[in-house]
From TrEMBL:
One Pfam family hit: Abhydrolase_1
Occurrences of domain AB hydrolase-1 (ranges): 51-301
Organism from which the protein derives: Metapseudomonas furukawaii
Protein name: Hydrolase
Keyword Translocase set for record: no
Amino acid sequence: MRVLILLAALLCGVPSFAFATTRCDVTVPTETVALGEVRLAYQSVGRDRDPALLLVMGLGGQLIHWPDEVVRRLCQSGFRVIRFDNRDVGLSAWVGAAPSVNLSYEVVRYRLGLPVAAPYGLRDMAGDALHLLDALGIGEAHVLGASMGGMIAQHLADMAPERVLSLTLVMTSSGAQGLPAPSPALLELLARREAPSREVAIAQQADLLGALGSPEVADDRDQLLEQAARAYDRSFDPEGVQRQMLAILAEPSRVDLLNRLRVPTLVVHGTADPLLPVMHGVHVAAHIKGSELRLIPGLAHRFQEAFKEPLLAAVLPHLLAHRAEGHVAQL
């Protein structure tokens, strides 16, 4: 019977669940690689011979903010899933000379339409991702970016389109002027990164997580505090997050960049996103020729359990449709 199951799996190109579970261990060690001015922490889940799927996280997010179950499901679908900490957060580092950051001053300049000073840009962060692929010996990859990670992914696809097998942009933006802005209260929560103690920092992060969640989902405060504590205990670097925020604020509109992209692209956005309202996603898709737009009712700006299946249902068909030729899943 086991032989028949294996044969059926091979003929259908679908990995056996038992073998997929074994190879898709999300507890594999986190590795670190030095890449010039950055040191990136990453985790590779799955087999080297499977097509790579690079996950790019958003502002202040760490690789642990990609839900383990989602990473496991992506891997079980036949991908080598690589998640990493962007420079300046988590266990990654930017080893450049860090200037002092006056975020409040730069935010005022941004609101006045004046240039914003940033020690590095989103394109530099896209370069980090490409260098990570180089270090891992990966020539081509599927790329999935969320929020700021989607902005970074846009640059990555522009810098090296020949290396991007498919592009998935979740809850992100084109950065164009005139798109709906988040509320000042939410921006204040997002910018509030300094805290006098671990307890205050965790409470602040739980407040932010709650504000980024869907109004259709009742969050458990204890779970939010637990999530915030896990991230804090792994790494807490408010100045690094502020530098990432400056990179976003200093970024001009990416409309021209999007207009020239010719990578198979899926844009996924929630109808209840309080940080980047749904028109941000609509605008991104409108400027990428041939892209597909999937709107998820009720999804906000956070990976919440209630939206795990709708997100996977949106993302997986796109990824599977654009798997590299010859990369048939093997047992």
